[in-house]
Design a protein that fits this description.
Helices cover about 30% and strands about 25% of the residues. With about 260 residues, the protein is α+β, with helices and mostly antiparallel strands. The longest helix has 21 residues.
């Protein structure tokens, strides 16, 4: 059955709003905080609870759809055939834990590997970034303009400072050169939000040496609808199933920025 993605967008926004309200009301309660891959990779019961909420909704309403989530849903998935939901229940968990600000719910819906619908919701600011394939991207109810050309000297770079103290082998010093040449650098701690900031012009590029599909899936559609570029450091399409390097930018900058990217082995 052919999916009406315009109708689906309204349905998913209702789900996201419900999940966001649950997260907001949890703020005054003690959090059970765990670590995953390392001491800086945090996860809370709200991450698990929010992912389970979307998993149940999708299973109940769209049982033939697949889902990939940060907290383990679909971890054995090896194909993007059919309809695939890629979800980060709380993108920016460290911000959620320490700041109770600057974190988002991110959802991307893909059909046979093609992005159809993207939602990134800033839970505390109640700011929406949404897009449907071929119909433009929106910041709340305002349609975003296509990204305008910008030079590197006038660009604001989104880059986690952790990468600037990354080992100097494999060309890592190129990132220092990039920051020196740009107007300034910023880090907000949520890839999904920072990619949307590239889409709306708050940033001109966002760079990450190791990003997972759920970090960028919702934003990919939004970026495409405003004419922004989003690739790996090798100028290839980002994977929907595997983590890797990631760079998004105003299209006028992309080729130049790629020349500053370090070699990742």
């Amino acid at each position: 059955m052919r999916i009406n993605y315009s109708e689906l967008l309204h349905i998913v926004k209702d789900w996201v709003e419900e999940a966001g309200e649950t997260i907001r009301t949890s703020m005054d309660k003690p959090l059970n905080i765990e670590t995953k891959s390392n001491a800086n990779d945090l996860v809370t019961e709200m991450d698990y609870q929010t992912e389970a909420f979307f998993k149940e909704k999708i299973a109940a309403h769209y049982p033939d759809h697949q889902m990939l989530g940060e907290e383990g849903t679909g971890e054995s998935l090896r194909s993007t055939k059919g309809v695939l939901w890629i979800i980060d229940p709380i993108d920016g968990t460290t911000n959620f834990v320490h700041q109770q600000y600057n974190f988002a719910i991110s959802i991307g819906v893909f059909e046979d590997g093609v992005g159809q619908l993207g939602i990134v919701y800033d839970v505390m600011k109640r700011e929406w970034f949404t897009a449907l394939k071929g119909e433009g991207a929106f910041q709340n109810d305002k349609k975003l303009e296509k990204r305008k050309p910008v030079t590197l000297e006038k660009a604001i770079v989104g880059l986690n400072s952790r990468w600037l103290v990354w080992e100097h082998k494999n060309g890592g010093e190129k990132l220092h050169d990039l920051v020196h040449k740009s107007r300034s650098a910023r880090s907000y701690g949520s890839a999904a939000l920072e990619l949307c900031y590239v889409a709306c012009g708050r940033l001109d590029t966002y760079i990450n040496l190791r990003l997972s599909p759920w970090d960028y899936a919702g934003s990919l559609i939004i970026l495409k609808e405003v004419g922004a570029s989003a690739t790996t450091f090798s100028n290839e399409n980002p994977s929907l199933l595997e983590k890797g390097t990631f760079i998004a930018s105003a299209p006028s900058l992309h080729e130049e920025l790629l020349s500053y990217m370090p070699e990742i082995k």
